[in-house]
Specification:
heterodimer, A: 269 residues, mainly alpha, Four Helix Bundle (Hemerythrin (Met), subunit A), B: 119 residues, 2 domains, flat
Protein backbone atom coordinates (compact mmCIF):
# COMPACT_ATOMS: atom_id res chain seq x y z
CA UNK A 1 0.00 0.00 0.00
CA UNK A 2 1.19 3.50 -0.76
CA UNK A 3 2.88 5.34 2.03
CA UNK A 4 0.00 7.71 2.43
CA UNK A 5 -1.26 9.91 5.25
CA UNK A 6 -0.12 9.21 8.77
CA UNK A 7 -2.92 8.72 11.26
CA UNK A 8 -5.46 11.47 10.97
CA UNK A 9 -8.46 12.11 13.19
CA UNK A 10 -11.86 11.98 11.54
CA UNK A 11 -12.22 15.77 11.57
CA UNK A 12 -9.09 16.21 9.46
CA UNK A 13 -10.10 13.24 7.33
CA UNK A 14 -13.30 14.91 6.15
CA UNK A 15 -11.89 18.42 6.21
CA UNK A 16 -10.66 18.41 2.62
CA UNK A 17 -7.21 18.14 1.15
CA UNK A 18 -6.99 14.36 1.38
CA UNK A 19 -9.16 11.51 0.15
CA UNK A 20 -11.29 10.20 3.02
CA UNK A 21 -11.61 6.92 1.11
CA UNK A 22 -7.86 6.59 0.59
CA UNK A 23 -8.44 6.20 -3.12
CA UNK A 24 -7.70 8.49 -6.04
CA UNK A 25 -10.40 10.52 -7.77
CA UNK A 26 -10.13 8.57 -11.02
CA UNK A 27 -10.42 5.19 -9.39
CA UNK A 28 -13.38 6.24 -7.27
CA UNK A 29 -15.18 7.55 -10.35
CA UNK A 30 -14.48 4.27 -12.16
CA UNK A 31 -16.15 2.44 -9.27
CA UNK A 32 -19.13 4.81 -9.38
CA UNK A 33 -19.48 4.20 -13.10
CA UNK A 34 -19.28 0.45 -12.58
CA UNK A 35 -21.99 0.54 -9.91
CA UNK A 36 -24.32 2.44 -12.26
CA UNK A 37 -23.48 0.08 -15.11
CA UNK A 38 -24.15 -2.86 -12.81
CA UNK A 39 -27.62 -1.41 -12.28
CA UNK A 40 -28.16 -1.32 -16.07
CA UNK A 41 -27.24 -4.96 -16.41
CA UNK A 42 -29.27 -5.91 -13.35
CA UNK A 43 -32.26 -4.15 -14.88
CA UNK A 44 -31.88 -6.14 -18.09
CA UNK A 45 -31.40 -9.48 -16.36
CA UNK A 46 -34.23 -8.89 -13.90
CA UNK A 47 -36.63 -7.94 -16.71
CA UNK A 48 -35.53 -11.15 -18.43
CA UNK A 49 -36.50 -12.93 -15.22
CA UNK A 50 -39.86 -11.17 -15.27
CA UNK A 51 -40.71 -12.33 -18.80
CA UNK A 52 -39.40 -15.78 -18.16
CA UNK A 53 -41.54 -16.27 -15.09
CA UNK A 54 -44.56 -14.76 -16.83
CA UNK A 55 -44.30 -17.27 -19.68
CA UNK A 56 -42.85 -20.11 -17.67
CA UNK A 57 -44.40 -23.01 -19.62
CA UNK A 58 -43.51 -21.89 -23.12
CA UNK A 59 -40.14 -20.20 -22.54
CA UNK A 60 -37.47 -21.79 -24.76
CA UNK A 61 -34.82 -23.84 -22.97
CA UNK A 62 -31.39 -22.37 -23.78
CA UNK A 63 -29.96 -25.88 -23.74
CA UNK A 64 -31.99 -26.69 -26.88
CA UNK A 65 -31.12 -23.43 -28.60
CA UNK A 66 -27.36 -23.11 -28.31
CA UNK A 67 -26.13 -26.55 -29.24
CA UNK A 68 -23.37 -25.87 -31.73
CA UNK A 69 -19.65 -26.24 -31.35
CA UNK A 70 -17.13 -25.42 -34.08
CA UNK A 71 -15.98 -28.47 -36.09
CA UNK A 72 -18.27 -30.83 -34.15
CA UNK A 73 -21.58 -32.03 -35.50
CA UNK A 74 -24.62 -32.87 -33.46
CA UNK A 75 -25.82 -31.59 -30.12
CA UNK A 76 -23.20 -30.03 -27.85
CA UNK A 77 -25.24 -28.06 -25.35
CA UNK A 78 -23.38 -25.72 -22.98
CA UNK A 79 -19.89 -26.58 -24.17
CA UNK A 80 -19.41 -23.62 -26.46
CA UNK A 81 -20.58 -21.10 -23.91
CA UNK A 82 -18.44 -22.82 -21.29
CA UNK A 83 -15.46 -22.24 -23.56
CA UNK A 84 -16.39 -18.56 -23.92
CA UNK A 85 -16.63 -18.28 -20.14
CA UNK A 86 -13.22 -19.87 -19.80
CA UNK A 87 -11.71 -17.41 -22.30
CA UNK A 88 -13.11 -14.46 -20.39
CA UNK A 89 -11.92 -15.75 -17.00
CA UNK A 90 -8.50 -16.33 -18.52
CA UNK A 91 -8.35 -12.77 -19.82
CA UNK A 92 -9.36 -11.55 -16.38
CA UNK A 93 -6.36 -13.36 -14.93
CA UNK A 94 -3.98 -11.85 -17.45
CA UNK A 95 -5.45 -8.42 -16.68
CA UNK A 96 -4.93 -8.78 -12.94
CA UNK A 97 -1.37 -9.97 -13.63
CA UNK A 98 -0.80 -6.79 -15.68
CA UNK A 99 -2.05 -4.72 -12.75
CA UNK A 100 0.26 -6.62 -10.39
CA UNK A 101 3.24 -6.01 -12.69
CA UNK A 102 2.34 -2.32 -12.90
CA UNK A 103 2.41 -2.03 -9.13
CA UNK A 104 6.08 -2.98 -9.11
CA UNK A 105 6.85 -0.86 -12.20
CA UNK A 106 7.69 -3.87 -14.37
CA UNK A 107 7.00 -2.41 -17.81
CA UNK A 108 7.79 -5.50 -19.90
CA UNK A 109 5.43 -7.71 -17.86
CA UNK A 110 2.65 -5.11 -18.10
CA UNK A 111 3.08 -5.15 -21.88
CA UNK A 112 3.01 -8.94 -22.03
CA UNK A 113 -0.08 -9.42 -19.86
CA UNK A 114 -2.03 -6.55 -21.40
CA UNK A 115 -1.37 -7.95 -24.87
CA UNK A 116 -2.78 -11.33 -23.79
CA UNK A 117 -5.81 -9.61 -22.27
CA UNK A 118 -6.53 -7.85 -25.55
CA UNK A 119 -6.17 -11.12 -27.45
CA UNK A 120 -8.56 -12.83 -25.03
CA UNK A 121 -11.08 -10.04 -25.44
CA UNK A 122 -10.96 -10.26 -29.23
CA UNK A 123 -11.39 -14.04 -29.16
CA UNK A 124 -14.41 -13.62 -26.91
CA UNK A 125 -16.05 -11.02 -29.19
CA UNK A 126 -15.37 -13.31 -32.15
CA UNK A 127 -16.96 -16.26 -30.34
CA UNK A 128 -20.00 -14.18 -29.59
CA UNK A 129 -20.33 -13.22 -33.26
CA UNK A 130 -20.22 -16.92 -34.13
CA UNK A 131 -22.95 -17.68 -31.58
CA UNK A 132 -25.12 -14.87 -32.96
CA UNK A 133 -24.63 -16.17 -36.49
CA UNK A 134 -25.92 -19.59 -35.50
CA UNK A 135 -28.86 -18.16 -33.61
CA UNK A 136 -29.83 -15.89 -36.53
CA UNK A 137 -29.52 -18.68 -39.10
CA UNK A 138 -31.30 -21.27 -36.98
CA UNK A 139 -31.64 -24.96 -37.76
CA UNK A 140 -31.99 -26.66 -41.12
CA UNK A 141 -35.42 -27.93 -40.18
CA UNK A 142 -36.77 -24.60 -38.98
CA UNK A 143 -40.15 -24.35 -37.28
CA UNK A 144 -43.73 -23.46 -38.11
CA UNK A 145 -45.47 -20.26 -37.09
CA UNK A 146 -49.24 -20.71 -36.79
CA UNK A 147 -51.71 -18.00 -37.77
CA UNK A 148 -52.04 -16.90 -34.15
CA UNK A 149 -48.25 -16.42 -33.92
CA UNK A 150 -47.49 -19.55 -31.87
CA UNK A 151 -44.25 -21.25 -32.83
CA UNK A 152 -44.55 -25.04 -33.12
CA UNK A 153 -41.78 -27.52 -33.84
CA UNK A 154 -41.82 -30.20 -36.53
CA UNK A 155 -42.20 -33.77 -35.26
CA UNK A 156 -39.77 -35.06 -37.89
CA UNK A 157 -38.16 -34.21 -41.20
CA UNK A 158 -41.27 -35.21 -43.17
CA UNK A 159 -42.89 -32.00 -41.87
CA UNK A 160 -46.38 -33.47 -41.70
CA UNK A 161 -46.88 -33.43 -37.92
CA UNK A 162 -46.23 -30.73 -35.35
CA UNK A 163 -45.42 -30.53 -31.63
CA UNK A 164 -47.15 -27.82 -29.63
CA UNK A 165 -45.01 -25.80 -27.18
CA UNK A 166 -45.07 -26.51 -23.46
CA UNK A 167 -44.02 -29.29 -21.16
CA UNK A 168 -46.74 -31.71 -22.33
CA UNK A 169 -45.48 -31.50 -25.94
CA UNK A 170 -48.88 -32.26 -27.49
CA UNK A 171 -48.46 -33.73 -30.98
CA UNK A 172 -50.86 -32.94 -33.82
CA UNK A 173 -50.84 -35.01 -37.02
CA UNK A 174 -53.06 -36.01 -39.94
CA UNK A 175 -55.67 -33.72 -41.50
CA UNK A 176 -55.75 -31.36 -38.51
CA UNK A 177 -52.03 -30.76 -38.82
CA UNK A 178 -52.22 -30.40 -42.59
CA UNK A 179 -54.73 -27.54 -42.23
CA UNK A 180 -52.56 -25.74 -39.68
CA UNK A 181 -49.44 -26.24 -41.79
CA UNK A 182 -51.18 -24.85 -44.87
CA UNK A 183 -52.17 -21.65 -43.07
CA UNK A 184 -48.93 -21.21 -41.14
CA UNK A 185 -45.54 -20.00 -42.29
CA UNK A 186 -42.21 -21.72 -41.99
CA UNK A 187 -39.61 -19.80 -40.00
CA UNK A 188 -35.87 -20.27 -39.77
CA UNK A 189 -33.59 -18.81 -37.13
CA UNK A 190 -34.27 -15.77 -35.02
CA UNK A 191 -34.43 -12.01 -35.28
CA UNK A 192 -36.20 -9.33 -33.27
CA UNK A 193 -39.70 -10.26 -34.44
CA UNK A 194 -39.62 -14.02 -34.93
CA UNK A 195 -37.77 -16.88 -33.26
CA UNK A 196 -37.94 -20.46 -34.46
CA UNK A 197 -37.16 -21.75 -30.96
CA UNK A 198 -40.26 -20.21 -29.39
CA UNK A 199 -41.23 -16.82 -28.03
CA UNK A 200 -39.74 -13.85 -29.93
CA UNK A 201 -39.10 -12.26 -26.51
CA UNK A 202 -36.43 -14.85 -25.87
CA UNK A 203 -34.61 -13.71 -29.00
CA UNK A 204 -35.06 -10.05 -28.10
CA UNK A 205 -33.54 -10.54 -24.66
CA UNK A 206 -30.75 -12.67 -26.06
CA UNK A 207 -29.79 -10.04 -28.62
CA UNK A 208 -30.15 -7.17 -26.19
CA UNK A 209 -28.34 -8.63 -23.18
CA UNK A 210 -25.52 -10.40 -24.97
CA UNK A 211 -25.31 -7.46 -27.39
CA UNK A 212 -25.02 -4.96 -24.55
CA UNK A 213 -22.41 -7.14 -22.92
CA UNK A 214 -20.59 -7.64 -26.22
CA UNK A 215 -20.49 -3.87 -26.69
CA UNK A 216 -18.87 -3.63 -23.28
CA UNK A 217 -16.30 -6.27 -24.19
CA UNK A 218 -15.56 -4.50 -27.45
CA UNK A 219 -15.17 -1.07 -25.84
CA UNK A 220 -13.08 -2.75 -23.14
CA UNK A 221 -10.76 -4.08 -25.82
CA UNK A 222 -10.52 -0.60 -27.38
CA UNK A 223 -9.78 1.07 -24.02
CA UNK A 224 -7.28 -1.66 -23.13
CA UNK A 225 -5.58 -1.07 -26.46
CA UNK A 226 -5.28 2.67 -25.86
CA UNK A 227 -3.74 2.08 -22.43
CA UNK A 228 -1.52 -0.62 -23.95
CA UNK A 229 -0.15 1.93 -26.44
CA UNK A 230 0.50 4.36 -23.57
CA UNK A 231 2.37 1.63 -21.69
CA UNK A 232 4.49 1.00 -24.79
CA UNK A 233 5.21 4.73 -25.10
CA UNK A 234 6.33 4.79 -21.47
CA UNK A 235 3.70 7.32 -20.34
CA UNK A 236 3.14 5.57 -17.01
CA UNK A 237 6.82 4.84 -16.51
CA UNK A 238 7.39 8.62 -16.60
CA UNK A 239 4.36 9.28 -14.42
CA UNK A 240 5.78 6.99 -11.75
CA UNK A 241 2.76 4.74 -11.35
CA UNK A 242 0.53 2.47 -13.42
CA UNK A 243 -2.81 3.40 -11.93
CA UNK A 244 -4.40 3.75 -15.36
CA UNK A 245 -3.80 0.04 -15.91
CA UNK A 246 -5.56 -0.60 -12.61
CA UNK A 247 -8.56 1.49 -13.69
CA UNK A 248 -9.03 -0.24 -17.03
CA UNK A 249 -8.46 -3.47 -15.12
CA UNK A 250 -11.49 -2.65 -12.97
CA UNK A 251 -13.59 -2.16 -16.09
CA UNK A 252 -12.32 -5.38 -17.61
CA UNK A 253 -13.08 -7.43 -14.49
CA UNK A 254 -16.53 -5.89 -14.43
CA UNK A 255 -17.14 -7.18 -17.96
CA UNK A 256 -16.12 -10.64 -16.76
CA UNK A 257 -18.35 -10.28 -13.71
CA UNK A 258 -21.38 -9.47 -15.86
CA UNK A 259 -20.69 -12.48 -18.04
CA UNK A 260 -20.71 -14.72 -14.95
CA UNK A 261 -24.31 -13.64 -14.39
CA UNK A 262 -25.35 -13.77 -18.06
CA UNK A 263 -23.91 -17.29 -18.25
CA UNK A 264 -25.95 -18.42 -15.26
CA UNK A 265 -29.24 -16.74 -16.03
CA UNK A 266 -29.27 -17.14 -19.79
CA UNK A 267 -27.61 -20.49 -20.31
CA UNK A 268 -27.76 -22.48 -17.08
CA UNK A 269 -31.00 -21.75 -15.28
CA UNK B 1 1.75 16.51 -13.39
CA UNK B 2 -0.26 19.34 -11.90
CA UNK B 3 -0.48 19.87 -8.17
CA UNK B 4 -4.15 19.16 -8.45
CA UNK B 5 -3.68 15.51 -9.43
CA UNK B 6 -2.70 13.60 -6.33
CA UNK B 7 -3.21 10.14 -7.81
CA UNK B 8 0.40 9.18 -7.11
CA UNK B 9 -0.24 9.46 -3.39
CA UNK B 10 -2.97 6.84 -3.53
CA UNK B 11 -1.60 4.54 -6.22
CA UNK B 12 -0.76 1.09 -4.89
CA UNK B 13 2.75 -0.24 -5.16
CA UNK B 14 4.57 -3.28 -3.83
CA UNK B 15 8.00 -4.86 -3.86
CA UNK B 16 9.33 -7.72 -5.98
CA UNK B 17 9.10 -10.14 -3.04
CA UNK B 18 5.48 -9.19 -2.32
CA UNK B 19 4.77 -9.70 -6.02
CA UNK B 20 5.60 -13.42 -5.77
CA UNK B 21 2.96 -13.96 -3.10
CA UNK B 22 0.42 -11.81 -4.92
CA UNK B 23 0.84 -13.74 -8.17
CA UNK B 24 0.44 -17.00 -6.30
CA UNK B 25 -2.82 -15.68 -4.87
CA UNK B 26 -4.04 -14.51 -8.30
CA UNK B 27 -3.51 -18.00 -9.74
CA UNK B 28 -5.16 -19.61 -6.74
CA UNK B 29 -8.29 -17.52 -7.34
CA UNK B 30 -8.14 -18.47 -11.02
CA UNK B 31 -8.25 -22.18 -10.14
CA UNK B 32 -11.17 -21.55 -7.81
CA UNK B 33 -13.09 -19.71 -10.55
CA UNK B 34 -12.29 -22.43 -13.06
CA UNK B 35 -13.35 -25.19 -10.67
CA UNK B 36 -16.66 -23.46 -9.98
CA UNK B 37 -17.32 -22.96 -13.71
CA UNK B 38 -16.41 -26.59 -14.32
CA UNK B 39 -18.82 -27.70 -11.61
CA UNK B 40 -21.58 -25.56 -13.11
CA UNK B 41 -21.11 -26.96 -16.59
CA UNK B 42 -20.92 -30.55 -15.32
CA UNK B 43 -24.10 -30.05 -13.34
CA UNK B 44 -25.78 -28.43 -16.35
CA UNK B 45 -24.89 -31.37 -18.58
CA UNK B 46 -25.67 -34.24 -16.22
CA UNK B 47 -28.29 -33.16 -13.70
CA UNK B 48 -31.00 -35.02 -15.59
CA UNK B 49 -28.95 -38.22 -15.70
CA UNK B 50 -28.31 -37.94 -11.99
CA UNK B 51 -32.06 -37.37 -11.47
CA UNK B 52 -31.59 -34.31 -9.29
CA UNK B 53 -34.48 -31.98 -8.49
CA UNK B 54 -34.50 -28.86 -10.69
CA UNK B 55 -35.03 -26.52 -7.73
CA UNK B 56 -31.88 -27.87 -6.12
CA UNK B 57 -29.88 -27.55 -9.34
CA UNK B 58 -31.14 -24.01 -9.92
CA UNK B 59 -30.21 -22.79 -6.45
CA UNK B 60 -26.83 -24.49 -6.69
CA UNK B 61 -26.19 -22.53 -9.89
CA UNK B 62 -27.22 -19.26 -8.26
CA UNK B 63 -25.13 -19.81 -5.13
CA UNK B 64 -22.06 -20.84 -7.16
CA UNK B 65 -22.51 -17.73 -9.31
CA UNK B 66 -22.59 -15.50 -6.26
CA UNK B 67 -19.43 -17.14 -4.92
CA UNK B 68 -17.72 -16.53 -8.26
CA UNK B 69 -18.89 -12.91 -8.26
CA UNK B 70 -17.52 -12.46 -4.75
CA UNK B 71 -14.05 -13.67 -5.73
CA UNK B 72 -13.94 -11.45 -8.82
CA UNK B 73 -15.00 -8.33 -6.95
CA UNK B 74 -13.11 -8.95 -3.72
CA UNK B 75 -9.82 -10.25 -5.12
CA UNK B 76 -9.48 -9.35 -8.79
CA UNK B 77 -11.08 -5.93 -8.40
CA UNK B 78 -9.25 -5.61 -5.11
CA UNK B 79 -12.30 -4.29 -3.26
CA UNK B 80 -11.47 -6.49 -0.26
CA UNK B 81 -8.36 -4.42 0.37
CA UNK B 82 -9.91 -0.99 -0.05
CA UNK B 83 -10.73 1.30 2.83
CA UNK B 84 -13.76 0.11 4.77
CA UNK B 85 -15.97 3.15 4.08
CA UNK B 86 -15.20 2.84 0.39
CA UNK B 87 -16.18 -0.83 0.34
CA UNK B 88 -19.48 -0.04 1.99
CA UNK B 89 -20.18 2.89 -0.31
CA UNK B 90 -19.75 0.70 -3.39
CA UNK B 91 -21.42 -2.49 -2.22
CA UNK B 92 -24.29 -1.56 0.08
CA UNK B 93 -26.44 0.67 -2.20
CA UNK B 94 -26.12 -1.81 -5.04
CA UNK B 95 -26.95 -4.90 -3.01
CA UNK B 96 -29.90 -3.31 -1.21
CA UNK B 97 -31.51 -1.88 -4.35
CA UNK B 98 -31.00 -4.98 -6.45
CA UNK B 99 -32.48 -7.29 -3.84
CA UNK B 100 -35.45 -4.92 -3.64
CA UNK B 101 -35.85 -4.92 -7.42
CA UNK B 102 -35.61 -8.71 -7.67
CA UNK B 103 -38.28 -9.23 -5.04
CA UNK B 104 -40.65 -6.65 -6.54
CA UNK B 105 -40.25 -7.69 -10.17
CA UNK B 106 -40.39 -11.44 -9.64
CA UNK B 107 -43.43 -11.15 -7.37
CA UNK B 108 -45.11 -9.19 -10.15
CA UNK B 109 -44.04 -11.83 -12.69
CA UNK B 110 -45.71 -14.59 -10.70
CA UNK B 111 -48.90 -12.53 -10.57
CA UNK B 112 -48.82 -11.89 -14.33
CA UNK B 113 -48.18 -15.57 -14.94
CA UNK B 114 -51.18 -16.57 -12.84
CA UNK B 115 -53.41 -14.03 -14.58
CA UNK B 116 -52.48 -15.58 -17.95
CA UNK B 117 -53.89 -18.84 -16.71
CA UNK B 118 -57.12 -17.20 -15.59
CA UNK B 119 -57.82 -15.88 -19.07
Amino acid sequence: MAGHSPTVDSKTLWGGGISPFKVSYGKMMMWFFLVSDAFSFSGLLISYGFMRHSFEETWPVAENVFTHFPFFHGDQPLLYVALMTFILIMSSVTMVLAVEAGQRMDKSKVIRWMAWTIVGGLVFVGSQAWEWMHFIHGTELGALQLVDGTIVQWLNEAKDAIVMPGAEGLTISGAEAAALIKEGTEVYGANLTVNEYGLPLFGDFFFFITGFHGTHVFSGVVINFIIFVNVLKGTYEKRGHYEMVEKVGLYWHFVDLVWVFVFTFFYLV
Amino acid sequence: MSDFDRTAEYAHSHSEEDGIGLRKHIWKIFWVLLAITGAEVTLGLFWKDWSLAWAFVKWTFIILTLIKAYFIVADYMHLKHEYKNFKLMVAVPYIVLVIYLIIMVLAEAVFVHDSHNLM
